Amino acid sequence: MAELKTKKTGSSVGAFLEQITDEQKRNDAYTICKLMEASTGSVGKMWGSAIIGFGDRLLKYESGRELAWFQMGFSPRKQNFALYIPGSVEKQQLLLEKLGKYKTGKGCLYIHKLDEIDSTVLKEILLKSLEI
Questions:
Q1: Number of neighbours of residue 4 by Cβ within 10 angstroms
Q2: Which of 7, 28, 42, 46 is 20 to 30 A removed from 35 (C-alpha atoms)?
């Protein structure tokens, strides 16, 4: 079985965020960090070279395979922010309708910048995802 490439590292989250050259994107990333820290009660850690994960959980697959992973996390990509949210984002349709401009993918919520969404609704989505 192939080994997972994305693992928790000892790299600095702050140093990673400071490398973001676009000031708005960097400020948004810090805000998302604070939202996820408040939601999980955990400090962000680097996972691989470009994902910030919060909290720890053990994923168990039907095959019996177990995987150490984070509760929630995000990656400030060039085009957007990819928010990795537990459970299914689609299960929160009522909140998503109030969120603003976003896209979803398999287990991810994609937003371009925070001023295009309602941050209060995002906070609700993050908190509710931990219950699902």
A1: 11
A2: 7
Q: Which CATH number fits domain 13-129: 3.40.250.10, 3.40.1170.60, 3.90.1150.200, 3.30.470.20?
A: 3.90.1150.200
> Alpha-carbon Rg of the chain, whole angstroms?
15
Is 92 exposed, middle or buried, given 0-12, 13-18 or 19+ CB atoms closer than 10 A? buried
Domain ranges of the chain: 13-129
This prediction has a pTM of 0.90
Composition of the chain by helix, strand, coil, percent to 5? 35, 25, 35
Q: Are 106 and 76 in contact (CB under 8 A)?
A: no
